[in-house]
Amino acid sequence: MLEYLSIEGGQKLKGSVSISGAKNAALPLLAASLLSKNTISLSNVPNVVDVKTLLKLLENLGATQSFQNRSVKIDTTTVSSACANYDIVRKMRASILTLGPLLARFGHCEVSMPGGCAIGQRPIDLHLKALEQMGAVIELKQGYVVAKAPDGLKGTTIIFDKVTVTGSENILMAAALAHGVTKLVNVAKEPEVVQLCELLRDAGVSIDGIGTANLTIVGSYGELLDMKDIEVIPDRIEAGTYLCAGAITNSKITITDVIPKHLESITLKLQQMGFGFEIGEKSITILPAEKMKASDIETSEYPGFPTDVQAQFMALCTQVDGTSIIDERLFENRFMHVSELARMGANIKLKGHSATVEGDTKLICADVMATDLRASSALILAALVAQGTTKIHRIYHLDRGYEDLEGKFSALGAKIERLEE
Ligand code: UD1
Q: Quick one: CA torsion of 331, 332, 333, 338, rounded to 10 degrees?
């Protein structure tokens, strides 16, 4: 039975919502558990499908794990297989994060080419090229990456041609167990990458340059690491989505359990659009705007404006005064929400990687389809202000990355229900 969301528009929101742990931080930390010689516990893990998929994949490789009350206990010392098979990997692109650690630990592995969100080509060439530079021999066979490094991976200098988040994470994990020193240049600076560095550093790996684009990592010559327990950082993308919900309904709401610094590009943009803020140590309150103003947006790597909240801002831009231009610089095909928003009455023109969004548009309910994880949340936001009851289908995309979505929105006063069709 497929589920859908039914949302009645026109309600103001109020109150506060607690933000979950970051899916995109939990995934690399879980993959890194493959490098640990002891059981580790991760707390503040979001209960979302992508996390469960990776846990299943690790279990499939031989790990033992439990996931209760947002806490994962995982023991990978029992892992015997180095083959991550298609059935699981196809469900989630981030499964590719097992490539670096498996190869570094076993000297060989087979990982199916990833599936996941259909937002552009999303190649993994940079991951593979970097591993080859570390001495791996890689072949692509029947949809699998077959990698070998019988004498271990060797430290070297790697310059990433593009900033890649999971690419940086994969190579960091490989470098942690490599023979010798690896220098990484043009590394992603996302908070999720920083937290992975911290996990490895606390396990005894010497890493210089944490939080910068240049990292120097001293490998352990194949020795497994003495990993410590860790608390997953808050999800800045979930936080950004709820801030946009406050903004689009022009309501005062508070998000709690966040790291405000991680959200600066989002709060600054909302400020330009006319919203006020009260920023606490771990909370942010958005205050209604006297006049909601248009603003241009260009996505980029952290600390720039995140591509993962581009769709949510596009929904918001339909309600402001004036025309906004949104430039998507990371993923060429990340505009699938445009046609669904158009079905609700949005006036958006696409040209290449740029979308021109007319403001002051009256949105009207419709049956719409979630197409990828973040695109779907844009539809929820649009539904919050649309006239009538919008039905959002294919919400399994949302369940990959948002914990207790309808519970959290209901608590803020939205009229939202999960139903079966
Ligand atoms: C991660 C996030 C995702 C976010 C994205 C960009 C996770 C699990 N996912 O995805 O939510 O939208 O960062 O912030 O953390 N590229 C190549 N070759 C490669 C790898 C990437 O050309 O080998 C390109 C991509 O096509 C894209 C750009 O580099 O244009 C950035 O992609 P990347 O940072 O790798 O995204 P992900 O790590 O997959």
A: 100
Residue nearest ligand 1's atom 21 by CA: 164
- Is the CB–ligand 1 distance for residue 191 below 6 Å? no
Q: Is the CB of 123 under 6 A from ligand 1?
A: yes
CA atoms of 274 and 286, how far apart (whole Å): 11
Q: What percent of the chain has pLDDT over 70?
A: 98
Copy the structure tokens of residue 346: 């949005």
96 lines ligand 1 (CB under 6 A): no
**Among 92, 128, 193, 330, which residue has the most ligand 1 atoms within 8 Å of its CB, making it the best to mutate?**
330
How far is the C-alpha of 324 from the C-alpha of 274, rounded, in Å? 14
User: Which sign, positive or negative, has the C-alpha torsion 186, 314, 232, 134?
Assistant: negative
164 in contact with ligand 1, CB cutoff 6 A = yes
Residue 324 is classified by DSSP as E
Which residue from 54, 99, 122, 173 has its CB within 8 A of the most atoms of ligand 1, so it is best to mutate?
A: 122
- Count the helices and strands in the chain (H runs, E runs): 14, 24
d(CA 173, CA 247): 39
Tell me if residue 117 is catalytic: yes
Residue 117 has pLDDT above 70, yes or no: no
Please indicate whether residue 166, judged by its CB atom, sits closer than 6 Å to ligand 1: yes
Assessment of whether the complete model's pTM goes beyond 0.85: yes
Mutate to test the pocket of ligand 1, among 165, 235, 334, 402 (most ligand atoms within 8 A of CB): 165
Strands 71-75 and 206-208: unpaired
Cα–Cα dist 149/165, whole Å: 23
Q: What span, in angstroms and rounded, lies between the C-alpha atoms of 16 and 20? A: 13
Distant-in-sequence contacts of 14-17, Cβ < 8 A, 24+ apart? 14/251, 14/252, 14/253, 14/412, 14/413, 15/253, 15/254, 15/411, 15/412, 15/413, 16/253, 16/254, 16/255, 16/256, 16/283, 17/242, 17/253, 17/254, 17/255, 17/256, 17/408, 17/411, 17/412
Please give the backbone phi and psi of residue 319, each rounded to the nearest 5 degrees, phi first: -105, 0
Return all residues near 282 (Cβ < 8 A) that are at least 6 apart.
256, 257, 258, 259, 260
Q: Which of the four pLDDT bands, split at 50, 70 and 90, describes residue 120?
A: low
